[in-house]
Design brief:
- It is built from 16 helices and two strands.
- It has helices at 3-16, 22-28, 34-60, 68-95, 124-146, 152-175, 180-183, 192-210, 226-245, 253-281, 286-300, 309-334, 342-360, 377-410, 416-421, 423-428; strands at 118-119, 122-123.
- Residues 8-27 have low confidence and may be disordered.
């Protein structure tokens, strides 16, 4: 069940009992569950751990040594910026009230989000912070597409606008009360469309608007420290259990199955990428197996609450193969410079996962069932497809507009001299490595 449906069920329970005696109302009212709360506090910390230090290290290891601090700085600054903006406006736009396209400003500045307010069986403060960690990692993922060439000041302005105009509305579409995609019974348990397709297509647009790095693809731009990348990928793998199992908002059987599905899909995708690379290039690489693991994590995200173990296995294998092709063959054929393969892994992995969610939710295939009112794989896949297309279209157009506005006002790209020197020195006057 999606987040919005779980919240709506609680709201419906309250409305349905409004005319009953006070004693009955009290018995049916949402109650704080300490076990659920303890799990969600843990899950929230795990998801934050995914961005800092997980994603920051994963990306930092893949850039050249002269840009390692710039990527770490971007991830850390985004964490801080999004936290403040989520508290001021983002949470309200996503979850503040009824509406097909946005939640309004009724909870701006976290109005009404107090010690006693609940979301289901957990404090609303915990739910708000849990969702904040999703809002943090999504724009941070985009960093991988334009690494090594964007101005830090422009990045901050772009991310602020993107969070409020793109991420928060799409989160409401899928998870918010009355959101139009949620009302169509889309299945996106933990963010295949909201997080990964959203960030991946935004990354591609950003890479195209900024243009290629100087010398790409002729100049070698090998990762400077794959040890950092593997450590970061390992942190992402561990933190993702909070991302997926935490999206149940309860410590129950669905959370347990989400954890199992996440582990199985990730392992399958890592092996698939490794074996394909081994067969095509003669040797398996650390970067390959790490990228495959992240691809599996991405693809199982929308399906983690509805797919069974064998469905998760197939989704992982499909993601390992599909993302490998996208990040190597397709990228090379088209020639775009997505520095760290944000599009190839997150958008493509998210699309694979979103569509296959509609298949492997089927009870006949070991899944937990279709969305409300849907009775067939074809119908559910159709709804999933609508969600994919809507996210791709809105995000691509909105991201392009935001980037062009920022470019017109303050510019987007560092100078050729700054890029050649490296962003660590030119933008932050610091060195990550004394070479």
């Amino acid at each position: 069940m999606s987040i919005c449906k779980r919240i709506s069920a609680q709201a419906g329970l309250l409305l349905g009992t409004a005319m009953l005696p006070a004693l009955a109302f009290a018995a049916d009212a949402p109650k704080l569950n300490s076990g659920d709360t303890a799990w969600m506090l843990t899950a929230t910390a795990l998801v934050l751990f995914m961005t800092i230090p997980g994603l920051a290290l994963f990306y930092a290891g893949m850039v050249r040594s002269k840009n390692v601090l710039s990527v770490l700085m971007q991830c850390f600054a985004i964490t801080s910026l999004v936290t403040v903006l989520w508290a001021l406006f983002g949470y309200s736009i996503a979850f503040g009230g009824e509406g097909a396209y946005w939640g309004g400003l009724g909870k701006a500045f976290l109005k009404g989000v107090g010690v006693g307010s609940l979301t289901g069986s957990i404090p609303e403060t915990v739910f708000m912070t849990f969702q904040m960690t999703f809002a943090i990692i999504t724009p941070a993922l985009i960093v991988g597409a334009f690494a090594e060439r964007m101005k830090f000041s422009s990045m901050l302005v772009f991310m602020a606008l993107w969070l409020l105009l793109v991420y928060a509305p799409i989160a409401h579409w899928v998870w918010g009360s009355g959101g139009w995609l949620g009302s169509k019974s889309i299945l996106d348990f933990a963010g295949g469309t909201v997080v990964h397709i959203n960030a991946g297509i935004a990354g591609l647009v950003a890479a195209l608007v900024l243009g290629k790095r100087k010398g790409y693809p002729g100049t070698p731009m090998a990762p400077h420290n794959l040890t950092l990348t593997l450590v970061g990928a390992s942190m992402l793998w561990v933190g993702w259990f909070g991302f997926n199992a935490g999206s149940e908002l309860a410590a129950d059987g669905t959370a347990g199955m989400a954890m199992a599905a996440t582990q199985i899909a990730t392992a399958a995708a890592a092996l698939a990428w490794m074996l394909i690379e081994w067969a095509s290039h003669g040797k398996p690489s650390v970067l390959g197996i790490a990228s495959g693991a992240v691809a599996g994590l991405v693809a199982i995200t929308p399906a983690s609450g509805t797919a069974g173990p064998m469905g998760a296995l197939v989704i992982g294998l499909a993601a390992g193969l599909g993302c490998f092709i996208a990040a190597t063959k397709i990228k090379r054929a088209i020639g775009y410079d997505d520095s760290l393969d944000a599009f190839g892994v997150h958008a493509i992995g998210g699309i694979i996962g979103a569509i296959l969610t509609g298949v492997f939710c089927a009870p006949s295939l070991g899944g937990a069932g279709f969305g409300s009112g849907i009775t067939s794989i074809g119908s559910q896949v159709g709804v999933q497809f609508i969600g994919v297309v809507a996210t791709l279209t809105y995000t691509a157009v909105a991201t392009f507009i935001i980037l062009m506005v920022v470019k017109a006002v303050m510019g987007l790209r560092v100078s050729d001299e700054q890029e050649a020197e490296g962003l660590d020195i030119s933008l932050h006057d610091e060195k990550g490595y004394n070479l």
